[in-house]
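BUG: 3D viewer hangs when loading the predicted structure for this chain

Environment: internal workstation, default settings.
Expected: structure renders.
Actual: progress bar stalls at 90%.

Input used:
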Amino acid sequence: MGSGPMVSGLFRQKLYSQLLILAAIPLAVIIGLTMNSDWYYGELISMGVFGGGLAILILIYPYWGLIISTASLLIIDVMPALPFVTSATQLMGGITFGSYLAAYILNRTSMPSMRLGREFNLMFLFVFWMMASNPTAATAPGNNDRVWLVTFAQLLLLLFLANNVLDSAFKQRVFIGIYALFVLITALFAILEMLAGADDLQAFRASGTAGGSNAAARYLTVGFVFLYYMYTKAPNFLVRLILLLAIGVVVLGLASTASRTGFLLLLVAVALFILTSSKGSQSSRFGLGILLLITASAFLFLPDTWIEHLSTISSSIEDNTDTVKLRSELWRSALNMWADNPVAGVGIGQFKVELESYAVIELKEQYYALGAHNMYLQILAETGMVGLFFFVSILLSALLALFRASRSANREMRELATIWLIVFIVLLSGGITKHDHYEKLIWLCVGVASYFDYFNKSSTRTVEEENASGPKTHIAAHNP
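Structure tokens produced before the viewer hung:
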């Protein structure tokens, strides 16, 4: 009876100490900058302190590396450039993997066994096929010097880490909270950008700090889902009020991107909230009603040009105009590529290279650098039917694992699995209009789903063992 509060208090104490380390890092940076009048050396000192402090935190608590490297996707525009790596997130990922391995080797008896999972195995087969079907495309540097084999090896590692590091409700809640904080930062920047360019939507679409308006819209929609989860778990009225205001800011930030797909994904998230809350309590339905009111109210603050742009969704689809027409032409081009290369495809990353030869109509020159704007068709065109089979199998396996966990008898894990399921469906829906097959957040969700698959099997095994041991105990008690 008394162990529950003790464990909860221990978790809070551990989190407070971790947050204290995290808060000390920027404080040390500020002190370093103010003490050194030479900006160049002050910048080096601040980056060294920040990076060193962050590395120490990750070495002690590996899951923080996964949390920060994923959340930093929201501030990619302001991340510092580092030598020898394409981004700071890669460095954090490497430190995270190294610290996890070190912790596993040093504490092998006390740590859970290392897990791969069905999704990992399927992704390994996908990467193997990608390499075997066209080794040159997989290993040769492409646009932006991307080597696709390296990219998918990193995503495979991300899946593995999410499965093994985000292995408790506590760690997943910390992830959700930190991600929500980063979402607020990029939402505020997007709103400021929208206000600065309110008179010229076509020349200026807000992206916050996320590296593009469409990417920002997806990340903000995920933040919207996470903030609503936090709202449902808020301990008091004041916290709920703050979270509702945060939700309003995120929705306004999302609308500031002028991404029509982002708006549709927001509607998908709301629809999934309604479906999953249909059997909920009266308070949860009331909270959902407040959420809908906040979401609708946020759009009232948008300039007229933004409202007019978002209102063209249905007409653009019906008339096949502007970017809807462009996407449909790219999709037809992808199908043409697949028709000529049905089994192996044209090679990973080769859609842009082959587009000019397979374009249905003559496109403007700048459009030949585009992807298929549909991750399923791009995978089909580049890796053929076999690659698409493995790719879709991974996604369906993850969806099934999350769906089963959302029906768990464990309320805490059931609620978390439901939120991850909504996030995953939102991201997969976004893949219809954007080639997101190398989007880190998607593969993190697959890794989390792999953990929930392990949780489902462990829970089932525990119930079966308890049921099996029950009659034996009963018989023994009556037959000395």
